[in-house]
Records
---
Amino acid sequence: MTKPPTSQPNQPSPPRHWKVHVEALRQSGLSRAEYCRQHKLSYHTLSYWQRKLSSSKLTNKETTLVPVAFEHLINHQSVQPERAALKVILSDQIAVEIGDNFSSATLTRLLATLEHR
């Protein structure tokens, strides 16, 4: 186990100093508050460095690209739009075209919505 460095009052500590403390805290099994009391550290400063070092670990990880095969999802035939089995013209601005496989519940909600506008 790495022995944490002793703090020097009124001197800014380098990130390496805090990295050692964050690792020692993790290995100690102590609560953050107890660790700070024993090592005469600022609880809030140690918390800041824990977050900062934790997030820098996440951003420094290598990204690996993985090829994804989705050929089977593509239909190689040209897609033709479904011909409307029914066309309801409500005004010169609104026309509803309904295919063979329409949802009657959706059509009911649509017509109710248009009726109340």
---
Amino acid sequence: MKNIIKKSLVNINYSLFKSRKSKSIFFHDVHSKNEYVKNGDISTPIEKFAKYVSIIKENGFSIVDEISNLNNEIEISFDDGYYGIFENIDFFINQNINIKIFISPSLFKDKNYMSSSNIKELSKLKNISFGSHSYSHKRLDVFNDNELENEFIKSKQIIQSLTNQEVDSFCFPLGIFNDKIIDTALKTGYKNLYSCIPGPFFKLINGSVIRRSIADNVSENYFKNIVYGADYILSKWYQKKHYLK
């Protein structure tokens, strides 16, 4: 019921409000028609994802590796590092689509996720970059100070050693964060902190946390609403749920 209400609000808001502000949109997994869908509603058919890309371009937005302009740019990221991304990597290569993948090293040995060797292989591609999703992929508010710091440092060290890329982007696992978590992330060398709270890219939370819109396997019409920022109407709901005070 909540999802129906949220989608209805976004659809109504689209008729009243359209924004060309640059934004970050995220997904979890993709799959082709012939693949077993392991992840249900959080996996998007690659054919549908291709339609999302067309919607972005047809409406005058550009997919970029890093947003630098106030308007008309979209950054795409994937959380968790599911194996479906690796299985469908040719699509992203052929379409020259930049994506950032947030990964947790503790998941590398799980068959549903990319392995360390998969990560190494993808890191050689110019349009793929990586960020940390913590080491354990657990809620960060459950850790004491030393454990929390280790979640940031250990994941950064492992990912950098695999990719030979600087890892300065972090996405909060399960979207949960508070001021102590933000401070620890910044203290351990992360510059770009990503949430799952929708809104314009440059409208930071607490001066440092980037907003993102979730778009897993949504309809093409709803995706267009997201592109134009109609989901911003849900920002306060997401913030109350994920930004712990």
